[in-house]
Write a structure and sequence with these properties.
With about 140 residues, the protein is α+β, with helices and mostly antiparallel strands. Helices cover about 20% and strands about 30% of the residues. The chain contains four helices and seven strands. It has helices at about 5-10, 65-70, 115-125, 130-140, and strands spanning about 25-35, 50-55, 60-65, 75-80, 85, 95-100, 105-110. The longest helix has 14 residues, at about 115-125.
Length: about 140
């Protein structure tokens, strides 16, 4: 009668609040290329690489593959999307968009279809706290 389930007795730390404990909103394969570092220097390694990508809250996690993610392996990189900008340039390859972080680091991301591109952009823009009007302007 005096027993309590462990999940009811755990306290959340200040960092682990409801706002940053969010479920996976989207996942799938994206190609990624680091374009600029935070000091606007062109990235030294600028080739496309495929990642199993997971969008959760304000974080975009890049895993080597889906199997590693499912095994609980740490992602290769996690990018915070808070206050980022989404840019779609006409000069880019098909299905490519850019994520520019507040420190001016920039990543190019490439989806495999127009539908996938649109979905990733919408979800990331939402998680960047960018409104739909701003996103529409960026896509022109």
């Amino acid at each position: 009668k005096g027993r309590r389930s462990s999940f009811n007795t755990r306290k959340l730390s200040n960092r682990a609040t409801k706002s940053n404990i969010e479920s996976v909103q989207h996942q799938g394969i994206l190609q990624k290329k680091h374009v600029h570092h935070s000091n606007k220097r062109v990235a030294s390694v600028s080739h496309w690489k495929s990642y199993f990508t997971v969008l959760s809250g304000h974080n975009l996690a890049f895993h080597k593959n889906q199997s590693d993610m499912e095994k609980g392996a740490a992602p290769s990189q996690v990018v915070s999307l808070r206050h980022c900008k989404i840019i779609r340039n006409a000069s880019d390859k098909q299905f490519v968009f850019h994520v520019v972080l507040p420190d001016e680091s920039e990543y190019a991301l490439m989806a495999d279809t127009a539908q996938s591109l649109s979905l990733w952009m919408q979800l990331i823009a939402h998680n960047c706290q960018m409104d739909e009007t701003e996103m529409a302007r960026q896509m022109l």
